[in-house]
Specification:
Elements lengths: L21 E12 L2 E12 L3 E5 L6 H12 L3 E4 L11 H6 L8 H9 L3 H13 L15 H15 L3 E5 L7 H13 L3 E5 L3 H7 L2 E6 L2 E7 L5 H7 L5
Parallel strand pairs: 3-6, 3-7, 4-5, 5-6
Antiparallel strand pairs: 1-2, 7-8
Bound molecules: adenosine-5'-diphosphate.
Adenosine-5'-diphosphate binds next to helix 1.
Length: about 240
């Protein structure tokens, strides 16, 4: 399989001239677990303002690549974890508020745990409304359905209000009729967005740049409009 990390991406870049800043510039990056590479010699440039989706079969290296990008993104980054990483005993409000814990003093955070500040409530509420969770503000996360919990995880990352939003299958448990809306919310919440998605149809509908991974390598990097059925069936072909 040819690895061409840059092919095709150009057409999708924001038309803001030649000096667009690279948010990520990976050159031949390998990440291994117990010396077994999960991604190998991956080169990838993502510019400020791009909305990118990672696709590919299970085990391709999408989560590993996302985690690597998250490590690189520093305090500007938010990650929607595949397993949500919520605190089940705390309310929806408090889980969303956790997206900005590091922006406040320990005292303010402690006080918020006992009695949320009205200002914070007012900032969180529109996000909960956009996620159709406005009636769940004070419910413990453990009492919610899987799809509702995933929306809380999205809300926390959106509330963080950083420049870079990364998501590992962030709508996998959300009803199909809601998933598109949630994806649009995610895309509108940060300048640069990179998501891994398993629903290819949904991915192509909502993202202009598609980076396909298989066996730890980028197999194509194309505008969504150029991705055809043959490429997808080759990407998802059974081993053998
Ligand atoms: P994807 O997100 O595309 O399913 P992953 O990045 O989760 O792919 O996995 C890529 C490869 O790395 C797989 O072979 C997987 O088994 C392995 N892997 C992922 N995470 C770990 C880990 N924490 N420890 C050991 N191996 C891992």
């Amino acid at each position: 399989m040819t690895v061409d990390p840059t092919a095709g991406g150009e057409a999708n870049r924001p038309a803001s001239g030649a000096n667009v800043r690279a948010v990520f510039e990976l050159r031949n990056v390998t990440v291994a677990y117990d010396e077994v590479p999960a991604i190998e010699r991956v080169s990838l440039r993502i510019e400020e303002g791009e909305k990118v989706v990672l696709i590919g079969p299970s085990g391709a290296g999408k989560s590993t690549l996302l985690r690597h990008l998250y490590e690189l993104s520093g305090e500007q980054g938010a990650l929607i974890h595949q397993d949500y990483s919520l605190i089940p005993q705390l309310s929806v409000f408090h889980n969303v508020y956790a997206g900005r814990l590091d922006q406040h003093t320990a005292w303010r955070n402690f006080r918020t745990l006992l009695r949320p500040d009205l200002r914070d409530m007012h900032t969180v509420q529109p996000i909960l409304e956009a996620l159709d969770l406005q009636d769940k503000t004070h419910e413990r996360v453990q009492a919610l359905s899987g799809g509702q919990q995933q929306r809380v995880a999205v809300g926390r990352a959106v509330y963080r209000d950083g420049q870079i939003l990364l998501g590992d299958e962030p709508v996998s448990a959300i009803d199909p009729h809601q998933a598109g809306r949630v994806l649009e919310l995610i895309k509108g919440s940060a300048a640069t967005v990179v998501l891994a998605m398993h629903d290819v149809q949904l991915a192509l509908e909502h993202f202009s740049r598609v980076v396909a991974l298989r066996d730890g390598q980028i197999t194509f990097d194309l505008p969504a409009a150029q991705v055809d059925r043959n490429m997808l069936s080759h990407l998802y072909r059974a081993e053998g």
